[in-house]
UniProtKB/TrEMBL annotation:
<dbReference type="InterPro" id="IPR002347">
    <property type="entry name" value="SDR_fam"/>
</dbReference>
<feature type="domain" description="Ketoreductase">
    <location>
        <begin position="7"/>
        <end position="191"/>
    </location>
</feature>
<dbReference type="InterPro" id="IPR057326">
    <property type="entry name" value="KR_dom"/>
</dbReference>
<dbReference type="InterPro" id="IPR036291">
    <property type="entry name" value="NAD(P)-bd_dom_sf"/>
</dbReference>
<dbReference type="Pfam" id="PF13561">
    <property type="entry name" value="adh_short_C2"/>
</dbReference>
<dbReference type="GO" id="GO:0016491">
    <property type="term" value="F:oxidoreductase activity"/>
</dbReference>
<protein>
    <submittedName>
        <fullName>Short-chain dehydrogenase/reductase SDR</fullName>
    </submittedName>
</protein>
<comment type="similarity">
    <text>Belongs to the short-chain dehydrogenases/reductases (SDR) family.</text>
</comment>
<keyword id="KW-0560">Oxidoreductase</keyword>
Length: 254
């Protein structure tokens, strides 16, 4: 049976990488899916493809670091599909550069897209979710929330914040039926993951896809992140709240 039947899901970054895999999987499991991604991203195409396959999906363009755009996108999804009962805060960007060369603008941009976005989107979604009787918030964190990776002070700091955002939301809202959990993927062969390897290489960090794959056994697949998110989104996780679910094949367990 479909595990998300009757739920409305909003996925930020839902048009690319693991966000796309989650949009596809959530729709296949019966959710009505609101894809929030940058204007001009492939969101419209993805939503159309899902509708052609018989699912309910809509694209609501927004830069998730912009309060006005977030408010409009959340309203668009709620108008189309009713209150959002699954929120996946997935959109995020990379930074791989020496700490002493990190500019203030770069710092603010990454913190805005990776962290402030969770504040803006979650704050816009929660009133409807609470009124609907509760729901699930999933925040995409990373192994970089718990292990320092070279040249990634900014990125690791932002992911550490995502990590604790989920936990503190869980504590503040559990009496209103809200569950909030974080997913912490290892290295994934998405545009983001492959860019990370390339950027680190340019900084002289001795990494390669092969080395990273070796550390985890292999690279993580976007579908595996989507499957972990599906569990957290579904009622199977009804007593799972404030958890950090690692999808890294034991990379951080050593
Ligand atoms: P990706 O780059 O393949 O896709 C990210 C999606 O987010 C894209 O569709 C992009 O358009 C969208 N996006 C970017 N900035 C946005 C903004 N300001 N507003 C709205 N949408 C925006 O990435 P991915 O591999 O799916 O990774 C994304 C998330 O996963 C990030 O939060 C990242 O920290 C996390 N993560 C990735 C890896 C990895 O190795 N790829 C590992 C751990 C965690």
């Amino acid at each position: 049976t479909a595990r998300l039947q009757g739920k409305t899901a909003l996925i930020t970054g839902g048009a690319g990488g693991c966000g796309l895999a989650a949009s596809e999987r959530f729709a296949a499991e019966g959710a009505k899916v609101g894809i929030v991604d940058l204007p001009g991203a492939k969101g419209e195409e993805v939503a159309r493809r899902l509708r052609e396959a018989g699912h309910q999906a809509i694209f609501a363009p927004a830069d998730v670091s912009d309060a006005g755009q977030v408010a409009r996108a959340v309203a668009t999804v709620e108008d189309a599909f009713g209150p959002i009962t699954v929120l996946m805060n997935h959109a995020g960007i990379l930074a791989a550069l020496p700490f002493l060369e990190t500019g203030e603008e770069e710092w603010d941009r990454v913190m805005a897209v990776n962290v402030k976005s969770m504040f803006l989107v979650t704050k816009a979604v929660l009133p409807g979710m609470i009124a609907a009787g509760g729901g699930s918030v999933i925040c995409t964190s990373s192994i970089s929330a718990v292990v320092g990776t070279p040249m990634e002070v900014l990125y690791c700091t932002s992911k550490g914040a995502c990590h604790m955002f989920a936990r503190a939301i869980a504590v503040e809202f559990r009496d209103r039926g809200i569950r909030a959990n974080a997913i912490c993927p290892g290295f994934i062969a998405t545009a983001h993951g492959l860019r990370e390897i390339e950027m680190l290489g340019k900084q002289g960090v001795d990494v390669s896809e092969g080395m990273i794959a070796q550390a985890q056994g292999r690279l993580c697949k976007p579908e595996e992140v989507a499957a972990a998110a599906l569990f957290l989104a579904s009622d199977d996780a009804s007593f799972v709240n404030g958890a950090h679910l690692f999808a890294d094949n034991g990379y951080t367990a050593i």
